[in-house]
Design brief:
mainly beta
């Protein structure tokens, strides 16, 4: 609910676990403008596609479909950091880094891209775990992947801890996931809930 020019966070790529359905999706991302239909986001997905886990990185200028970073592979357990920033009135900069598994001394890869998007929104900043059903490789409306847990940390908006903005917590309608309280003003964990 604030005009945000940048948002950043770190998270671990959680597992994709089959939970009774061969197709399911889960996305983990940072973005701007999530309270509008025109938002800018980058992150990772932990999907089940025909019974097999699929992990990928992506960025998106919603309402357009996400663009997969097919030459930037991610694996379960990798530590990611992502930033989306408004660099002038209509240009958005995406940065996504795969730091590799915990303890890695060098990054696996870094992705950056600046895109002109005149319809962009930046009235909020988010760090989210959500269903990603409807991605090209998934049928529309498929359920949330069992991702076990995902921990976001270092969440900042315009360089300040997200806690300093008194953020709102949005809970999934179907109660397939729960979230912890905010820790140190910059971190939270999301948990998959089994039926």
């Amino acid at each position: 609910g604030v005009n945000a020019d940048s948002v950043s966070a770190k998270w671990n790529v959680p597992p994709a676990i089959q939970d009774g359905n061969p197709n399911s999706g889960a996305a983990f991302w940072v973005g701007l403008g999530g309270t509008t239909t025109n938002l800018e986001q980058t992150g990772t997905a932990s999907d089940m596609v025909n019974g097999s886990p699929v992990y990928l990185a992506w960025y998106e200028l919603n309402p357009a479909k996400p663009i997969a970073l097919s030459n930037k592979p991610v694996q379960f357990g990798d530590i990611m950091s992502g930033t989306v920033s408004l660099t002038n009135s209509n240009q958005y900069h995406f940065a996504l880094t795969d730091h590799g598994p915990p303890g890695s001394s060098t990054d696996k890869w870094v992705f950056t891209k600046t895109v002109t998007y005149s319809k962009g929104g930046h009235n909020s900043g988010e760090a989210l775990a959500e269903d990603s059903g409807g991605r090209d490789s998934l049928p529309p409306g498929c359920p949330l992947t069992d991702f076990s847990t995902v921990a976001f940390s270092g969440i900042k908006i315009d360089g300040y801890s997200i806690g300093s903005y008194h953020p709102s917590v949005y809970q999934m309608v179907d109660n397939k996931a729960t979230v912890s309280s905010l820790r140190n003003g910059t971190a939270y964990t999301a948990y998959f809930q089994h039926s």
